[in-house]
Amino acid sequence: MVFDILSFGFMQNAIISGIAISLICSTVGLFLVLRKYSLFGDALAHSAFGGVALGLFLGFYPLWAAYAVSILSALALTKIRQKFDISGDAIIAILLSSGIAVGIVLISLSGGFSIDIFSFLFGSVLLVSTENVIGILGMCAAILIILIIGYKKFMYITFSEEQARVSGIRVEKLNYLLIAIAGITVVTSMQLVGVLLVSALFVIPNVTAMMFKRSFKQTIILSMSFSVFSTVAGILISYPLDIAPSGMVVLLAITLFIGSLVMKSAGMIKTTGILAKRA
Amino acid sequence: MIVDISELSVSYDGIGALEKISFGINKGDFLGIIGPNGAGKSTLFHCMLGLHLEYQGTIKFFNKDIRKSEEYLTHIGYVPQKPVVDRNFPATIREVVSMGQANNDPDMVDEALQKVWMHELADRRIGDLSSGQQQRVFIAKALVSSPKILVLDEPVTGVDIHNKDLFFQILSELNSKEKISIIWSSHDLDAVERLANKVACLNKTLFFHGISQEFFSDEEMMKKYSETSMQMHMHHH
């Protein structure tokens, strides 16, 4: 039956782009989660929703508008946060509600919710055309290359901005780059997963992976594995059941999280988190 | 002279934190910077490390004004005040030491860890270590880029005595054997007397800078230091 499903071109597109999206969401998400920015993906997704509505309202291709709005609002709010010393959670709340507010106003002005808007809210395998797959793969490859090249610096900044700055790393520039990458990741992912659930792929696989208390590299690999499994299995299961794949993807990610919690409570996860002996 | 600080003044919202501080550091110096809480030690360090640029006066490292070039930072290893390490941060000691390094030379990381006697624990996670062990890891991190100067801002606050002694022994060896100049702020006068060859005594202004033995053998100076510390303590409470 799996092979029957995979024989459809649109499912192949969804699976291929789903794997690529899972890889970047888990990698970008780890940096955000470790910076206590878990909800930033959610806020970016909501601002991207405002961008989609703006695109539809003005007659642009909605995804380009979403990219522009998501990146610009992320950069602007990061700047505002630094300059006016506003806390991260407050900024996230502002970004989240303004994206939705802009979206609602523009959708109302343009005559109400359409099928396009619902597709972006909940994600759709049908949204991913072959051209989209090429775009998604290109975007994901570029993001992964940037993260692989700069990962030691991104990791250092995430660990300690002060120490990273003293070691000569251009912290502000790299912070802006990471935030812009997060914005691009959100918009790239929301075609498949939807605005409402995209941040789940940023957070849940990473929190699950962190329970295994491994090294940074191993944590990223674990998180990627959980993310890819949830996405591929979610798409495959949702199709015959005729349900939105995003919900199933996130439910599977949550199942892995709960399973890991149970295994950890039962002492079944072997971690390296042993208290070091005093040297 | 490898560090030259001249007429350094800093104020926050009109309140002076440092007033016209001037002193120099020579190659090979082990300088202990002492002073009560609120004396401006951290402010001085932040200025020297380029973290705070709103100051009057000049700071030169290797004869270059730090406002004009950040290149000097590549010659500095910095160990912050006991850092708050998130216990859940997924990084091993080896990963922490190699963070931010452009060249990925595992031998240099191992060598740095050996100097602080942490190489056997290299694959442990940083969050699983005691605070004293974490500080030794941060020295290794500072050493991995072969610095000419180590800057340590009250590095052993809250560290147990055993790890404190190990820490001091490491600093002493780095200074005497590796010829690394050390700038170290501390409340621990006994340790400063034992380790540092130079002392800078700070309380917004610099009221002593010179040979360590001269400071600690000068009863008048010690009395003045105690009075100032007490005044600052009363002020804080």
Automatic annotation (TrEMBL), chain A:
<comment type="similarity">
    <text>Belongs to the ABC-3 integral membrane protein family.</text>
</comment>
<keyword id="KW-0067">ATP-binding</keyword>
<feature type="transmembrane region" description="Helical">
    <location>
        <begin position="133"/>
        <end position="151"/>
    </location>
</feature>
<dbReference type="Pfam" id="PF00950">
    <property type="entry name" value="ABC-3"/>
</dbReference>
<feature type="transmembrane region" description="Helical">
    <location>
        <begin position="219"/>
        <end position="237"/>
    </location>
</feature>
<feature type="transmembrane region" description="Helical">
    <location>
        <begin position="171"/>
        <end position="187"/>
    </location>
</feature>
<dbReference type="GO" id="GO:0005524">
    <property type="term" value="F:ATP binding"/>
</dbReference>
<keyword id="KW-0547">Nucleotide-binding</keyword>
<dbReference type="InterPro" id="IPR037294">
    <property type="entry name" value="ABC_BtuC-like"/>
</dbReference>
<keyword id="KW-0472">Membrane</keyword>
<feature type="transmembrane region" description="Helical">
    <location>
        <begin position="54"/>
        <end position="78"/>
    </location>
</feature>
<protein>
    <submittedName>
        <fullName>ATP-binding domain-containing protein (ZnuB)</fullName>
    </submittedName>
</protein>
<feature type="transmembrane region" description="Helical">
    <location>
        <begin position="243"/>
        <end position="263"/>
    </location>
</feature>
<keyword id="KW-1133">Transmembrane helix</keyword>
<feature type="transmembrane region" description="Helical">
    <location>
        <begin position="90"/>
        <end position="113"/>
    </location>
</feature>
<keyword id="KW-0812">Transmembrane</keyword>
<dbReference type="GO" id="GO:0055085">
    <property type="term" value="P:transmembrane transport"/>
</dbReference>
<feature type="transmembrane region" description="Helical">
    <location>
        <begin position="12"/>
        <end position="34"/>
    </location>
</feature>
<dbReference type="InterPro" id="IPR001626">
    <property type="entry name" value="ABC_TroCD"/>
</dbReference>
<dbReference type="GO" id="GO:0043190">
    <property type="term" value="C:ATP-binding cassette (ABC) transporter complex"/>
</dbReference>
Automatic annotation (TrEMBL), chain B:
<feature type="domain" description="ABC transporter">
    <location>
        <begin position="3"/>
        <end position="229"/>
    </location>
</feature>
<keyword id="KW-0067">ATP-binding</keyword>
<keyword id="KW-0813">Transport</keyword>
<dbReference type="InterPro" id="IPR003439">
    <property type="entry name" value="ABC_transporter-like_ATP-bd"/>
</dbReference>
<dbReference type="InterPro" id="IPR003593">
    <property type="entry name" value="AAA+_ATPase"/>
</dbReference>
<protein>
    <submittedName>
        <fullName>Metal ABC transporter ATP-binding protein</fullName>
    </submittedName>
</protein>
<dbReference type="InterPro" id="IPR050153">
    <property type="entry name" value="Metal_Ion_Import_ABC"/>
</dbReference>
<dbReference type="InterPro" id="IPR017871">
    <property type="entry name" value="ABC_transporter-like_CS"/>
</dbReference>
<keyword id="KW-0547">Nucleotide-binding</keyword>
<dbReference type="GO" id="GO:0005524">
    <property type="term" value="F:ATP binding"/>
</dbReference>
<comment type="similarity">
    <text>Belongs to the ABC transporter superfamily.</text>
</comment>
<dbReference type="InterPro" id="IPR027417">
    <property type="entry name" value="P-loop_NTPase"/>
</dbReference>
<dbReference type="Pfam" id="PF00005">
    <property type="entry name" value="ABC_tran"/>
</dbReference>
<dbReference type="GO" id="GO:0016887">
    <property type="term" value="F:ATP hydrolysis activity"/>
</dbReference>
